[in-house]
Amino acid sequence: MASSSPSKKYESEGACIFKPELGMHKKVYQRTGPRIAHYFRYVDLTSESRPDFIPEAFPMNFQYDDEHWSPGFLLRAAVRLQHILATFGIREGERTIHSAQPAVCFASFSLADLIAVRDGFRPHNDAATQYALTLPVAVAEKGGIHPVVESNGGQARPEDRAIHESQEHKSEDARLKFKRSRNNDGDREWRWQHAGNYSRRISKIEMDGWEGHTIPGLKLSQKKWSGIGVVVPDMVSARALQYDIISLIDRKIISETQFDHILVCEYLPASIEGLSEDEVRIAFANACYDFKSCLNLSAMTCCISPLDFKARVLQQAALVPNKPNVEEGGCWLWFEDNTHEYVRALVKANLVKVNKHGRYLASLGDVIGQKDLREREKIALKLSGDLQNDFGIRSTYFSVLNSGLFDDIPFFSGEQCGGAYYVADVTADVDLLTTSEQSSLK
């Protein structure tokens, strides 16, 4: 059901909140202009509708089922890996993309469809789900995503090529009578088509293995796709996607403008029927989660938080006597929340860095680095407890045996930490919400 107060503000507890933005009117018009959406659907890997070629495995922090992939998991995987797989659109064992090259498919974006799916009704476009990535039409066309048309034989192809081919035929019988997909501009299908040698790429993966190779697909981190929108059903999912996007920004894989907004379907109104264009834009804006506000810190926070953390590290180091080193390696404090203002200040001060899997790791300094690895893990746990009590920040230790590099293995960590670091279907993970958000669910 729609929220009775879709524009409700939340106390941030150091995280992002719903709130009006500077230049909101301009941004709203940009966001609610014509968009296309790549909808993520439930995938049954045991069925005849499974993709013809799938990843052999995901990174170790991806939690997924061997037989079923949920749309929530697939959306997060696409964002975290900055990659949408190109496929041949297999349905009941048959290809829906009849060409030598696979594609990434898009559909026209509609708020009415999202509301219908949310409330259990059939949407106008059957492809619609509450999990999607959207692009402005102008950005899509400039980047090589084009509408397709369908021939009388049921085969779809890029619109410009199809029209050209149909005009070349002289006989009426041979002429293809093209129509837009589903005979409705609102249901138009768009495709980004892989331009390389797909068969050769797949053959190399099969021969050489997965190291250094990826399945062909659309790379979301390319600058030409700036202005991406994310669609999720609820705030739990929004928090998880926020973690994913912020981690990419902190790793400098994308800029702050690559992703424009997160649209939360539960905050859309009960209906947009009868609303004016301006009222629809307002409804859209009220349902957008301001996930970037956590990047804005006060000068005082930027100054005090790093000093506080350094003092805590030195204090804990002084309490632990030096013993002969039995185990060597690196040890860090692993923060679960990448939006808390204390953690954000440490990131800005370069005291917290993000490893390749998305862990937020704080260096414990040269003084603690001289102690035995197990002793440093105990110090990290003591720091974790103090920060939990003082600021409500969840963390634990993270260590790598015989290496000072946080991307190496074998690594070890404390229990009960991770949160949105783990890429999974987060629909029921209420722990990702702030205290005030959790209470609003009761």
From TrEMBL:
<dbReference type="InterPro" id="IPR025216">
    <property type="entry name" value="DUF4427"/>
</dbReference>
<dbReference type="Pfam" id="PF14468">
    <property type="entry name" value="DUF4427"/>
</dbReference>
<protein>
    <submittedName>
        <fullName>Uncharacterized protein</fullName>
    </submittedName>
</protein>
